[in-house]
Amino acid sequence: MIELKNLSKVFYKKNIEIHALSDINLTVAEGCVYGIIGSSGAGKSTLIRCINLLERPTSGEVLLNGVNLTLLTPSALAKVRRQMGMIFQHFNLLSSRTVFGNVAFPLELINAPKQTIQKKVLELLELVGLSNKKDDYPANLSGGQKQRVAIARALASDPEVLLCDEATSALDPATTRSILELLKDINKRLNITVVLITHEMEVVKAICDEVAVIADGKIIEQGEVSDIFSNAKSELTQQFINSSMHVDIAHDYLNRLVQASDETKKDLLVKLHFDGASTNEPVLSAAVKLFNIDYEIINAKMDTLGKAQVGVMLMKFNGEVNKISEAMDYFKDKKVEVEIIGYV
Amino acid sequence: MSDAMLWMLLRGTWETIVMTFVSGFFGFCLGLPVGVLLFMTRDGQMLANKTVNRTVAVLVNAFRSVPFIILIVWMIPFTRLVVGTSIGVGAALVPLSIGAAPFVARMVENCLLEIPHGLIEAARAMGAKPLQVVNKVLLPEALPAIINSASITLITLVGYSAMGGAVGAGGLGHIGYQYGYVGYDALIMNVVLILLVALVFIIQFLGDYISKQVDHRK
Predict the structure, then answer these.
(1) Which candidate from B125, B127, B217 shows the least CB-CB separation from A139?
(2) In terms of domains, do A233 and A255 share one?
(3) Alpha-carbon torsion A314, A316, A321, A323, what sign?
(4) SUPFAM superfamilies given for it (chain B) (predicted)?
(5) Is the ipTM reported for this complex over the cut 0.95?
(6) In this complex, which of B123, B126, B141 lies closest to A96 when CB atoms are compared?
(7) A284 found inside a domain
(8) What is the residue range of A109's domain?
(9) Which structural domains are found in chain B, ordered by start?
(10) Are B214 and A96 in contact (CB < 8 Å)?
(11) Distance, in angstroms, between A262 CA and closest chain B CA?
(12) pTM
């Protein structure tokens, strides 16, 4: 439904060419949740703005249902934009309008009759769970509530596509989850195609069907989320995956940590990385039985993507020194990456 | 103080109020659209147009740099054309309005620059046309700031209106100058000063109050 063909965008800053996007090709199927992930400055903001032509691409085509948007007149483009809702990192609500007024805004733009506006706005506020806030001003809302208002506003013109520009980056983890759930719900219930950009793999993992990884204005990898996770080809993609699989070592352990074992500190602290290449055998319990060692899970983050087990575990092993090192070799055999942290 | 003096001061106050508010009104009628035009034709805005922006900016600056007392005299032919006479309150209103307009234009432009760019972007993404952006986003969002600018403009006009005396428009400034300064009447001069200070305080107070009422950002 959305197709970007050979899309490029060049900015000029003091006569220096900056290639924000080069030769982007992308297809977003109807009804899917499409994630575009990249570090800051990778060009993802420019890319999503090219979809509704807030930024005009230097070359290439933007097709929505086969219509090339770059060729439209300004008024035709304004009409097409109503088929594409957009939400932003900083919400961009009008401070001079109440919640009701903000959601009514897109309907006022097309001079919808008063009763239609009234009915539609109340329906949407119901959908995002903010009916009781309709007469409040945005300044009195929390970040999550503001984003819900922004979502209701984006849906007011009955769009086919919802563009999300870092929609959860300014929110705390719990609020992020609830907003992502809402987006997924909208995608399923109203069959609205969602395109989102983010720098967090968590977001992609949570709701996306497909993902594209962008770096330096180029798409370096794209495909279904489960494929990318279990079989990332580029290093950057792997980094994004790892960052979402990050576990911290508690200060208590870090303070006690030594690099070589001694009388008092015999327990080995390791990180085991399961990156999808590892088999789904129960390697942990097998190792315990084989080498007669004890273990304790200190911190872990595991996930199932497609059929692959992906994640990282911070563990403490206790037992005979040579048995433990044999166990580590066993893990390596089973394609589990072993990262020795030290002894505690 | 004689009754006649009292009446004169009363009339002078009324003339100053009329000159300030009426020229303020016309100054805004002229300056507001120019300010919006200056903003909208800026680089990166919806109607970005270097030629228009530069031309308007040059005109605005030119009018702002003419000393007001000279503007009054220089504009006499035009004033006569518009109001039919070159003396009296009506005649002072023309240069006062024209003098205030470029000032207002710059003030309005500055107020609009304060609006987060994301709001304009969001409106564009929703398919808003330039005029809709102006009416539904820019002006409502900048309203608290514009009202503050209006009180600054009106207070400046209180000062300017004192020069209305040059075309026989009267007003408090003229009385203070004629009877107080030239006629060595300290009482009249001080009463005029107190009245002017009171007027300025009232304008500032009302401006702050209204601005706060329409501000929903906090």
Answers:
(1) B217
(2) no
(3) negative
(4) MetI-like
(5) no
(6) B141
(7) yes
(8) 2-241
(9) 3-114+130-214 (1.10.3720.10)
(10) yes
(11) 60
(12) 0.84
